[in-house]
Amino acid sequence: MNEERVKQLICELLTEIGEDPEREGLKKTPERVMRAYQFLTQDTNKRRKRSSTTPSSPRSQQYDHRQGYRNLQSVRTSHAAFFGRCHIGYIPRAKLLGVSKLCRIVDVFARRLQIQERLTAQIGPGNHDRGQCPGVGVVMECRHLCKMMRGVQKQNAVMTTSSVLGCFHDEAATRAEFLALINHKT
Q1: Do 21 and 73 share a domain, yes or no?
Q2: Angle between helices 29-40 and 3-16 (to 10 degrees)
Q3: Do 83 and 7 lie in a common domain?
Q4: Domain annotation covers residue 50
Q5: Same domain, residue pair 79 and 170
Q6: Whole-Å CA distances, 4 to 7, 87, 164
Q7: 119-153 tens-digit pLDDT
Q8: What is the DSSP letter of 23?
Q9: Tell me, what DSSP letter sits at residue 117?
Q10: Which residues, including other chains, have CB under 8 Å from residue 75's CB and lie 6 or more apart?
Q11: Torsion of CA 125, 128, 133, 138, to 10 degrees
Q12: Cβ of 139: how many Cβ atoms within 10 Å?
């Protein structure tokens, strides 16, 4: 990111909306906005290059199917590109993914300029498409500032999106178990 250019563009934006970027209270705004964009999109290019969702850590545990470790795994994380929750469920084939790995998968896709529908659709396919998981389900429940602050101004509106792949799509019982787990109040 060309930091000076971004700060200059923020100054231009402030001027275009009728503000004086040199007035007290706004002098450091271009720097703050530039830092915010750096944080919100940090490591985007690096993460895109290594966006594999296959565990590479030696701590990844191998499990034998004969021992019955093909049960539904579910994680509820409160990190998303929006204000809300991302629920991920999967059926492991040979390896369990750690909770932190699932959160990193969400981060890989969330640290982009993003919409909830696309983010929901991007989280699941990595493991399923490479045969790591016979089934993956993703449900996101989020509040959006665009609905809360302007436009319809609905403070309690929640948008829910879902993506189900493999056995989550094909088997009603698997999908129902996932939905029951994420709807369980802790």
Answers
A1: no
A2: 120
A3: no
A4: no
A5: yes
A6: 5, 39, 43
A7: 899 998 877 777 778 999 999 998 887 777 766 77
A8: S
A9: H
A10: 87, 88, 89, 99, 102, 103
A11: 30
A12: 20
Q: Among all chains, which residue has been given the structure tokens 């971004």?
A: 6
* Same domain for 24 and 96: no
Structure token digits, residue 120: 């929901």
Residues 6+ apart with CB under 8 A from 173: none
- CATH number, domain of 165, equals 3.30.1130.10
> Do the domain assignments include residue 48?
no
SS3 content of the chain, % helix, strand, coil (to 5): 45, 20, 40
Instruction: Let me know whether 78 and 142 are in one domain.
Output: yes
137/135 Cα distance (integer angstroms): 7
Return the H-helix or E-strand segment holding 84: strand 83-91
Q: Compute CA 20 distance to the chain's CA centroid, rounded to the nearest angstrom.
A: 36
H helices present in the chain, as ranges: 3-16, 29-40, 44-49, 99-110, 116-123, 125-129, 145-148, 167-170, 172-183
Structure tokens at 10: 């923020």
pLDDT tens digits, one per residue of 73-130: 555 554 444 688 899 999 988 778 888 888 888 888 888 778 888 889 999 887 777 7
